[in-house]
Design goal:
single chain, 362 residues, two-stranded antiparallel ribbon, 75% helix
Length: 362
């Protein structure tokens, strides 16, 4: 069975307890520090808790197969909570890099800090303050994720294996974020035949590993997974993570802003060189491709221009090809579970999570 709302609430409660301790410890530092730490706590509110769900289900898949059902142990609850803190850090930095104004329908962290500066009539440049504060907020959240993760490992028999997985996740996503940033500039020098491959590499390192594969494996190793179980969950997690990111790319171009909390076509304004863009460029003639490249990455695109770019992507068959690849990766993930020595209930939960990750609207 998939983690219940009560079990996910346990993760949220762990987050609240941890952030409460951090706020209390820093209380003597004054109102500005309190404002900063409160922003950290607020960054953890909301969301689907997808990484926590995969972490808990990875643990359960191994524990059930060994005849050790729930309740979840403290180490995996702390790990699931730490993953959500790390995710919040990534979002803060991602919004800053992308110059995004909103996140989940609310001001992005750097915009919220900018507004705070203005509201308090502080000296200096409000936008610069917002950017600096957001960088530091992301750093604080990374530190918090490490602290919370280590708290949970104090009595864990599998601490070394879990640390290795967590470290790999942090390295991969950091490199992936850079590859994403670099691709927006470096695509122009890449051979035309490599753009799709490069876009998939970004999807793998920026999202697939840390969104699905590594949370699963962290949970699994904390339950004592053997090599066979590890391989099955890894073989499930990576293609599903790719499908998850490709769905995110589709929503970044075609999603409903009322559901996604981001403006329609935001990825086009930000110049994201996703697989949708790579596949579109493959089908365009030189003149049409030049115009397409000039428009993608223009932050001033209006609704009509976004609609025209959407039409070009659809007419080029890029949307259809990406949707097919989502399906193929989801099917590959499902095949990895067949015959695996994992708990039957957890395997059903993994399939439910796969459906939720690939057939979503936000």
């Amino acid at each position: 069975m998939s983690p219940s709302d009560d079990e996910i609430q346990t993760v949220s409660q762990r987050l609240e307890r941890f952030t409460g301790q951090q706020l209390s410890a820093m209380a003597p530092l004054g109102s500005e520090a309190a404002l900063f730490l409160r922003a950290g706590a607020d960054a953890l509110a909301g969301g689907k808790r997808l990484r926590a769900r995969f972490c808990l289900t990875g643990w359960r898949a191994v524990a059930e197969a060994s005849g050790r059902p729930a309740p979840f142990t403290d180490d995996v609850v702390a790990a699931a909570a730490a993953l959500e803190v790390f995710h919040a850090a990534a979002l803060v930095h991602d919004d800053l890099v992308d110059n995004s104004d909103t996140r989940r329908g609310r001001p992005a962290a750097h915009r919220a800090f900018e507004a705070t500066h203005t509201a308090h009539t502080w000296a200096g440049d409000a936008a610069g303050f917002g950017r600096s504060a957001a960088i530091l907020l992301g750093d604080l959240l990374v530190a918090w994720s490490d602290d919370l993760f280590e708290e949970g490992l104090l009595a864990s028999a599998h601490a070394a294996a879990a640390r290795a997985e967590y470290a790999r996740m942090r390295r991969d996503v950091t490199v992936g974020q850079f590859l994403d940033v670099a691709e927006e500039a470096a695509f122009i020098t890449a051979p035309d035949g490599e753009h799709a491959e490069r876009a998939l590499r970004v999807a793998s390192f920026k999202s697939a590993r840390y969104s699905v594969q590594q949370p699963l494996l962290i949970g699994a190793v904390l339950a004592g997974a053997d090599a066979e179980q590890y391989a099955a969950l890894s073989g499930f997690g990576h293609p599903l993570g790719i499908a998850f990111q490709l769905r995110d790319d589709v929503l970044g171009v075609f999603g409903d802003s009322a559901v996604t909390g981001k403006p329609v076509g935001d990825d086009l304004r930000e110049g994201k060189r996703t697989l949708l863009v790579a596949y579109t460029r493959e089908r365009l003639g030189a003149g049409a491709r030049q115009l397409f490249d000039e428009l993608v990455g223009d932050p001033t695109l209006d609704a009509g221009q976004v609609a025209a770019l959407q039409g070009t992507i659809v007419d080029a068959g890029a949307l259809e090809r990406v949707e097919q690849l989502i399906t193929e990766n989801a099917e590959a993930a499902d095949r990895a579970l067949r015959g695996a020595r994992l708990g039957h209930g957890a395997v059903g939960a993994l399939r439910d999570l796969a459906q939720a990750a690939t057939a979503r609207a936000s």
